Structures are given as C-alpha cells and as structure tokens.
C-alpha cells in the first residue's frame, strides 16, 4: 500500500493539532509540518490570553459554538494525559449598569443554548463572593471556564507528532503551493515536494497562503494588535480568576479584561487596534506591505467608519496607560496605575470581507486535497483539537487517499 503524503503549513496550535490528527486517523500517513519560524507557537498561539473559553458568546449552531464545546472536552482530557496544568478558575462577565444587563442576559441565553455547564446569572452582591475585589450590578458566572498555557499544549502536540513518525520542519517558510490534478506541490527555499493532501493553518498569513493555491483573495486578514499589562505580583490577590466586561456589540472584540495566567500572574487586556504589521510585536514595529494590505483595502475603511466610537476608545488605551487602567478599574477599582507594568503584545488574524464585515465564524475552505483554515480567531486555541477533528473528517470525506 502506498503511504499517503500529507503536509500541514503552519506550526501553531491548529496546524500541530491537525498534523497529529492526520497521523491518528490516516493509516500509515507520512505527515510533514512546515513552520517558517525557528520554534512552534511563535505567533498567535504564543501571544494570547491563555483562556479555555467555555462557549459563552457564540451563535448557537455555529462552528465556533460547536467546536469550542468539543474543543474544551478534548483539551481538558489532553492536558490531563500530558500533565499540562489546566485550572478551572471560573469567569465573570460583569454588567456595570442597566443598559448592559439585556446584553448580559443574551450572553447567558447563548451559553445555555451552547451547553456551557453550570453557567448562571449572579446578582451584584454575589459578585464579591466570587471575586472579592470586583464590582458590578450583575454577572454571568461560568465556573468551568479555565486557563492553560497554549505554548505547552503546542509543544506536547509537536512531541506527539514526532513520536508517531511525523516531521515538524522549523525555519521552513512555504513560498509556493500549486494544485495539480492528483497532487499538490509545496515549495520552500530548500526545494519542492509533492503531497496527496495539504492543510494550511497559517494564522496571520492565512489569506496569502490560501492565495498561493488559487483561492480567492477574500476574506482578507486584517491584523489587530492587543497590548497586555501585568499586575505587580504583590497585587495578584486582587483577581482570583477571569473578569470580563459585557462586550460592546458594536465592536467585535471582548474588551479589556483581567485574566489570571496559569503561572499565577494577572494580565490586563488586551485592547484592540489596527496593527502596523501582521507580525510587528515591537511597539514601533511595522511592515510596509502589511500596512498597504490593510489600508489599501476598502473593506477596512468601511469597517473603520462603522466603528469610530469603539476605535476612539481603544486608541485612548493605546496612547495612555492611565486610560487602559481606567478600563480595568471599572471592574476592579483597587487596581492603580502604579500596580501595572507593560506586558506582551498579541496580534489577532481577523478575516474581513469586502463590505467591511468581519467573518464571525471559523472559516475553513478547500476541496479536500487542499484545505485552508482561513479564519480561526478566539476561541481558536480552545477549539484546536476539535478543529483538527473537523478538518481531518473533511479531508477523509473528500479524498479517496
Ligand atoms: C491577543 C490574542 C488573545 C487571544 N486569546 C485567546 C484565548 O484566551 N483563548 C483562545 O482560545 N484563543 C485566543 N486567541 C486566539 C488563538 O490564539 C488563535 O485562535 C490560535 O492561536 C490560532 O492558531 P493557529 O495555529 O491558527 O495560528 P498561529 O498560532 O498564528 O500559527 C500559524 C503559524 O503559521 C506559520 N506560518 C505562516 N505562514 C507560513 C508559511 N508561509 N510557511 C510556513 N509557516 C507559516 C506562522 O509562523 C505560525 O507559526 C487569542 C488571540 C490573540 C491574538
């Protein structure tokens, strides 16, 4: 029997999860992961909030809702099997005034429809029993929302791939992907190789990699950075778990939140603003081609015009640490400017349509022989093992390999 040759482009948590799943489900497959950086999890997987989302916000029936719930089940078990720390520290989504209560209740309804376990609405007085330093008039409480180190998960997946005979090639940027009638050809600086199946999971570069094989240019990836601040270790007792605002429905991101990290440190953030580069983590970093791709895209301007109020609020938090801290103080008033220090920056790959609307759901396209994960924003890390199941099922259904 000839062995199926499978390639995965991208060594983030989703690409690695897909490679591992291919090895499990395709007998005798030869699996190669191409990762352009010198280590796995170099981009979104290594620059996020580390929250195992329980499924509160997502449209019931959507891929996000289904794959997030399935992803939690798989990830919890995987963490147990691999001895990766996983802590169900719980999450409050707190309403500050009556105007937010209706939106908060809508989140509760979605959470129930999505099957989030033990989720409930708590009154203002009960908030302090869960988070003694938090304030608000009511909250949705999800006790099973958890935290994890997604880099540790990605490293465990890479070790599984190697143990099952797969290869994770680091420092191998894919420069070309050509689809032929019976096979696909992946080109790197080292040469070209033919594969029976290719899955692309290129995160911030997902539109560019998809276009290599003739996929449409849209949806376009528009990068939004998010800055984090860290609470001084001596003030960590101000936050026990995860404290979130009720998201602004006019803006697609969750708003500055207070997040316990698996190492016990407390992070504030992230805010959300157009990034001057898809991989520009330094505060003054930028890329001319990425800027041109975003600001030369009419969809971006349509999005910007519709979101001026939220963009102005986010811009204040970018320009002023005081304004950033004020967002957090709405939920935990004792946090002071002097308690915080600048933390890491993450950059979200957000797929945007020509009319400026954002792709809300995960977007997975392709013909079976080449499958593209084109949009996998949060809760993509939580959902990674379930996205892998979904993608590999798609591959098996559509190919006879
Ligand atoms: C600020 C922020 C906070 C978030 N918080 C959470 C959270 O709390 N919980 C959660 O579940 N999700 C969260 N997310 C989302 C989550 O991080 C992503 O959904 C997930 O990491 C996506 O994984 P990925 O493998 O698709 O992408 P990535 O981790 O970005 O990996 C893509 C990989 O592809 C590689 N690549 C790209 N182009 C090429 C090429 N041509 N050749 C070879 N390799 C290539 C890149 O180098 C990269 O390593 C957050 C994201 C951000 C940015």
Structure description:
- The protein has 401 residues and is α+β, with helices and mostly antiparallel strands.
- The protein has three domains: 5-46 and 151-219 and 360-398, FAD/NAD(P)-binding domain (3-Layer(bba) Sandwich), CATH 3.50.50.60; 91-143, no CATH class; 220-237 and 252-358, no CATH class.
- It contains eleven helices and 21 strands.
- It has helices spanning 13-25, 63-82, 98-113, 124-130, 150-163, 206-212, 288-295, 298-306, 308-319, 321-329, 384-398; strands spanning 5-9, 30-34, 51-52, 86-87, 91-95, 120-123, 138-142, 146-148, 167-169, 176-179, 184-188, 191-195, 197-200, 220-231, 242-245, 257-260, 266-269, 273-274, 340-352, 363-366, 370-375.
- Strands 5, 6, 7, 14, 15, 16, 17, 18 and 19 form a nine-stranded mixed beta sheet that branches.
- A hairpin with a 5-residue loop joins strand 16 (257-260) and strand 17 (266-269).
- Helix 1 (13-25) packs across helix 11 and helix 2 crosses helix 11 (384-398).
- The radius of gyration is 21 Å and the shape is globular.
- The chain starts with a strand and ends with a helix.
- The structure holds flavin-adenine dinucleotide (FAD).
- Flavin-adenine dinucleotide is lined by residues 9-15, 34-37, 42-45, 47-51, 53, 173-174, 201-205, 209, 226, 270, 346-348, 373, 376-382.
User: What is the CATH superfamily classification of the largest domain?
Assistant: FAD/NAD(P)-binding domain
Morphology call: globular
- Radius of gyration, in Å, reads 21 Å
Oligomer: single chain
Specify the CATH class of the largest domain.
Alpha Beta
């Amino acid at each position: 029997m000839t062995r199926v040759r499978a390639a995965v482009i991208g060594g983030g948590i989703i690409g690695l999860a897909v490679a591992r799943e291919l090895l499990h489900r395709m007998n005798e497959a030869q699996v190669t992961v191409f990762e352009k950086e010198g280590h796995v999890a170099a981009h979104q997987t290594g620059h996020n909030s580390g929250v195992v989302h329980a499924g509160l916000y997502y449209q019931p029936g959507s891929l996000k809702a289904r794959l997030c719930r399935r992803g939690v089940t798989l990830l919890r078990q995987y963490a147990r099997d691999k001895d990766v720390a996983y802590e169900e520290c719980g999450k409050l989504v707190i309403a500050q005034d009556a105007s937010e209560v209706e939106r908060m209740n809508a989140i509760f309804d979605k959470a129930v429809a999505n099957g989030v376990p033990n989720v409930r609405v708590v009154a203002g007085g009960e908030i302090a029993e869960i988070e003694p330093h938090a304030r608000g008039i009511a909250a949705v409480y999800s006790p099973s929302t958890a935290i994890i180190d997604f880099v540790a998960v990605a490293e465990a997946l890479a070790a599984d791939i190697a143990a099952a005979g797969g290869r994770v090639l680091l420092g191998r940027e894919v420069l070309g992907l050509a689809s032929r009638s019976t096979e696909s050809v992946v080109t790197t600086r080292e040469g070209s190789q033919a594969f029976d199946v290719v899955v692309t999971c290129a995160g911030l570069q997902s539109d560019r990699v998809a276009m290599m094989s003739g996929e449409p240019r849209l949806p376009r990836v528009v990068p939004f950075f998010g800055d984090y601040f860290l609470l001084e270790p001596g003030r960590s007792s101000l936050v026990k778990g995860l404290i979130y605002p009720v998201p602004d429905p006019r803006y697609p991101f969750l708003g500055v939140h207070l997040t316990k990290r698996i190492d016990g440190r407390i992070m504030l953030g992230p805010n959300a603003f157009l990034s001057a580069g898809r991989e520009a983590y330094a505060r003054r970093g930028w890329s001319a081609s990425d800027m041109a791709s975003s600001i030369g895209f009419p969809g971006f301007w349509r999005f910007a015009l519709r979101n001026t109020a939220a963009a102005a609020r986010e811009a204040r938090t970018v320009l002023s640490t005081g304004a950033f801290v004020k967002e957090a103080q709405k939920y935990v008033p004792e946090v002071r400017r002097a308690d915080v220090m600048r933390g890491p920056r993450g950059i979200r790959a957000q797929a945007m349509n020509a009319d400026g609307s954002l792709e809300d759901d995960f977007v997975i396209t392709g013909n079976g022989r080449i499958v593209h994960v084109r949009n996998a924003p949060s809760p993509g890390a939580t959902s990674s093992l379930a996205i892998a199941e979904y993608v590999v099922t798609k591959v098996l259904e559509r190919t006879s390999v």
